């Protein structure tokens, strides 16, 4: 059943009929073979003269994002929902159905079926109800390519469907030239991959998924006939958004046509006609806010990948070109997201704070030695949905809470920054045995006023003098998170060297005030070692991953591979790494970082830590890390690492830095990060840390002290009610 045509189409038909009236009369009397010869000779075109888009179609295609297993679909990006597939992956009944429905003489004519065109013209001039077309599959293909070619102007694309005799003759010429050069199966393949089937589905692959939730190779006879019937009037006949009865009537028409072409028997057609309309509508996700239901936490990783993509010259010279490439280039992107690690990270983040809590626990996991980002989780839905009144960014937000950027500068990470001081000191030639009799308060050279000052100078204090004061070396200074030891050490090395070390390991200063301090006055940034600069879980995890990789820094990357629509690997996403630390320096820092998590250094110098429960969660597996708490316990942080993974989590209120999360949550943050590490290393061979050389160990010259306080000491106190839960780092 053909759809009624517009008055403009009728006018074109009459005009075209008048121009070709003589041809119509002549054609009716010509023998078949002579007609075919006339068709070929009248093409007046050659393959060489064809537009480039007809030789190599630049049809927009959907890009797919998968997890690191290459199978778990995260989402897709598209302007046009299309994915090309070879003819071998299309069910034979689908090929037969489209030929029967649209061009029964497809395998007999030379691209432009003059006999069929003449028949349609005569019928249309005589009238009698519905219009007849006359365009072959090849002519329809030409029209579809020219009207969707992204390399042509809007005017040129519109001209591809102009109701003019000149346009129709040009279409015939192009079709004849293609037929002589490509072969029927190639033309059929191209047609099936570009035709519009309604409901936003372009090409048979998208249509098969959209209507039936299956690949085109699995289409049944009834399903193929239904889809073939849609192309004449896709939106009107679509059984999803159009007229289901019309769709079924068109299915019957196609099945009868298949009987007429001997593709199927009458019995097969009758059986297919009797089948009920069994749709399985499958919307295709589009973009990061359209990830599959129940996995909207993947949206944060997806958004990070998109931001990375927009910086890659391989996808275009400008940001706009790269965005368009993602949405129309037909790329297959295997990302670095590990579904198991992500699931644990999301579970742990929401265990500490629920989705409807104003406070958040963003967590990031990075693979040392490659920089591949394995997980990005937070107790938020990645969604543009409205939030309840008074709740600015929870439970829904698309702000990059884990990676930073846009309006997110990050969060203070407290004593985790002592790692950068220790590295700078070791690099300067100092050893792990560098000792200092750490006082409860340390007057410094930095001018300051207020409660934290001593005679007009900044005067940092230890949180728990009974546990932190006294003679300390790097091992127990780091393990017990002794503020006065590390402020003293930073003064010996030079604060600018500590700031430079942090930047070398990938700490980015997104806050304007931090960036200005780092650039103009780093030498006087006395509190930097206590983690007053804003950072993100991703930056922090990657910085510690550099230590885990024995000094090899790798730029964070969210992909494993990117493949173009033609199957060619795009040269992006490979690890971009460089050595930024002497391996021995990194090994020495790691040896000291065994102390906070309840393990022992290679030289037996650990005597207490702020996160000793980590050792039990990892069941004694080699691990290192550091806790951190900011002023007034505004944030609580833990970052841990093994040779295979580094994970960081920061508890904070992203909308209100003045809202202190409190010291009590630190144990929960430690537990959450440790369990993400446990998932990441499960099933992997246990890998030991390499001990540093004696050159960086020095000569410990006092007996090793043993723990005298309970385990898991909080390293940034506030409440005087419980000294052991109030450790300031």
UniProtKB/TrEMBL annotation:
Keyword field: Carboxypeptidase, Cell shape, Cell wall biogenesis/degradation, Glycosyltransferase, Hydrolase, Multifunctional enzyme, Peptidoglycan synthesis, Protease, Transferase
Reaction(s) catalysed by this chain's protein: [GlcNAc-(1->4)-Mur2Ac(oyl-L-Ala-gamma-D-Glu-L-Lys-D-Ala-D-Ala)](n)-di-trans,octa-cis-undecaprenyl diphosphate + beta-D-GlcNAc-(1->4)-Mur2Ac(oyl-L-Ala-gamma-D-Glu-L-Lys-D-Ala-D-Ala)-di-trans,octa-cis-undecaprenyl diphosphate = [GlcNAc-(1->4)-Mur2Ac(oyl-L-Ala-gamma-D-Glu-L-Lys-D-Ala-D-Ala)](n+1)-di-trans,octa-cis-undecaprenyl diphosphate + di-trans,octa-cis-undecaprenyl diphosphate + H(+); Preferential cleavage: (Ac)2-L-Lys-D-Ala-|-D-Ala. Also transpeptidation of peptidyl-alanyl moieties that are N-acyl substituents of D-alanine
Gene Ontology cellular component annotations, sorted alphabetically: outer membrane-bounded periplasmic space
Keyword Hydrolase included in the entry's annotation: yes
Annotated region (Disordered), positions in chain: 690-729
Domain Penicillin-binding protein transpeptidase: from-to ranges: 364-670
GO molecular function, a single term: serine-type D-Ala-D-Ala carboxypeptidase activity
Compositionally biased intervals (Basic and acidic residues): 720-729
Gene3D superfamilies associated with the record: Biosynthetic peptidoglycan transglycosylase-like (1.10.3810.10), DD-peptidase/beta-lactamase superfamily (3.40.710.10)
GO biological process: cell wall organization; peptidoglycan biosynthetic process; proteolysis; regulation of cell shape
Domain Glycosyl transferase family: 73-258
Matching PANTHER family: BINDING PROTEIN TRANSPEPTIDASE, PUTATIVE-RELATED, PEPTIDOGLYCAN GLYCOSYLTRANSFERASE
Family the UniProt entry places it in: In the C-terminal section; belongs to the transpeptidase family. In the N-terminal section; belongs to the glycosyltransferase 51 family.
UniProt name for this protein: Membrane peptidoglycan carboxypeptidase
């Amino acid at each position: 059943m053909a759809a009624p045509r517009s008055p403009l189409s009728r006018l074109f038909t009459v005009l075209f009929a008048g121009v070709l009236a003589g041809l119509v009369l002549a054609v009716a009397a010509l023998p078949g073979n002579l007609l075919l010869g006339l068709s070929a000779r009248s093409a007046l075109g050659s393959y060489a003269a064809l537009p480039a888009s007809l030789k190599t179609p630049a049809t927009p295609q959907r890009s797919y994002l998968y997890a690191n297993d290459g199978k778990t679909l995260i989402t897709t990006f598209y302007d046009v929902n299309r994915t090309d597939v070879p003819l071998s992956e299309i069910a034979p009944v689908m090929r037969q159905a489209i030929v029967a429905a649209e061009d029964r003489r497809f395998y007999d004519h030379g691209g432009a079926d003059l006999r069929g065109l003449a028949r349609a013209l005569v019928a249309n001039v005589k009238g009698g109800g519905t219009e007849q077309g006359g365009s072959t599959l090849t002519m329809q293909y030409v029209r579809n390519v020219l009207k969707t070619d992204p390399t042509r102007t809007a005017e040129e694309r519109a001209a591809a469907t102009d109701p003019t005799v000149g346009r129709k003759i040009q279409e015939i010429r192009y079709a004849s030239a293609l037929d002589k050069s490509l072969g029927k199966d190639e033309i059929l393949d191209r047609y099936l991959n570009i035709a519009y089937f309604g409901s936003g589905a372009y090409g048979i692959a998208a249509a098969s998924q959209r209507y039936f939730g299956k690949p085109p190779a699995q289409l049944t006879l009834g399903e193929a006939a239904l889809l073939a019937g849609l192309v004449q009037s896709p939106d009107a006949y679509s059984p999803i958004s159009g007229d289901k009865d019309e769709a079924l009537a068109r299915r019957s028409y196609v099945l009868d046509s298949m009987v007429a072409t001997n593709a199927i028997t009458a019995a097969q057609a009758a059986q297919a006609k009797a089948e009920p309309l069994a749709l399985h509508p499958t919307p295709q996700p589009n973009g990061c806010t359209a990830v599959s239901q129940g996995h909207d936490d993947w949206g944060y990783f997806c958004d990070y990948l998109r931001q990375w993509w927009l910086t890659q010259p391989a996808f275009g010279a400008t940001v706009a070109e790269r965005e368009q490439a993602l949405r129309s280039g037909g790329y297959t992107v295997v990302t670095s997201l590990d579904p198991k690690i992500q699931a644990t990270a999301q579970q742990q983040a929401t265990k500490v704070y629920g989705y409807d809590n104003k406070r958040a626990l963003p967590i990031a996991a990075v693979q040392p030695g490659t920089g591949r980002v394995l997980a990005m989780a937070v107790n938020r839905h990645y969604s543009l949905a409205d939030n309840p009144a008074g709740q600015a960014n929870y439970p829904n937000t698309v702000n990059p809470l884990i990676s930073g950027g846009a309006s997110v500068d990050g969060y203070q990470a407290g004593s985790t920054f002592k790692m950068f001081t220790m590295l700078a000191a070791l690099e300067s030639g100092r050893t792990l045995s560098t000792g200092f009799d750490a006082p409860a308060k340390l007057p410094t050279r930095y001018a300051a006023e207020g409660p934290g000052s001593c005679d007009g100078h900044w005067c940092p204090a230890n949180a728990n003098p009974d546990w932190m004061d006294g003679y300390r070396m790097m091992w127990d200074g780091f393990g017990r998170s002794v503020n006065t030891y590390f402020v003293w050490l930073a003064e010996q090395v030079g604060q600018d060297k500590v700031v430079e070390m942090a930047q070398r390991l990938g700490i980015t200063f997104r806050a304007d005030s931090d960036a200005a301090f780092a650039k103009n006055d780093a030498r006087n940034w006395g509190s930097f070692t206590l983690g007053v600069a804003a950072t993100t879980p991703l930056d922090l995890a990657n910085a510690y991953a550099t230590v885990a990789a024995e000094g090899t820094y790798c730029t964070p990357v969210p992909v494993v591979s990117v493949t173009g629509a033609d199957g060619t690997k795009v040269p992006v996403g490979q690890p971009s790494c460089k050595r930024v630390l002497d391996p021995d320096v990194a090994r020495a820092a790691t040896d000291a970082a065994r102390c906070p998590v309840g393990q022992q250094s290679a030289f037996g110098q650990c005597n207490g830590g702020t996160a000793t429960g980590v050792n039990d969660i990892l069941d004694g597996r080699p691990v290192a890390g550091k806790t951190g708490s900011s002023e007034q316990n505004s944030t609580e942080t833990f970052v841990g690492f093994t040779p295979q993974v580094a994970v960081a989590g920061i508890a904070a209120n992203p909308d209100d830095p003045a809202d202190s999360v409190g010291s009590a949550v630190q144990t929960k943050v430690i537990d959450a990060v440790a369990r993400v590490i446990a998932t990441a290393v499960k099933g992997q061979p246990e890998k030991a840390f390499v001990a540093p050389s004696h050159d960086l160990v020095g000569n410990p010259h006092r007996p090793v002290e043993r723990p005298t306080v309970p385990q898991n000491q909080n390293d940034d106190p506030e409440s005087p009610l419980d000294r052991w839960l109030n450790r300031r780092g």
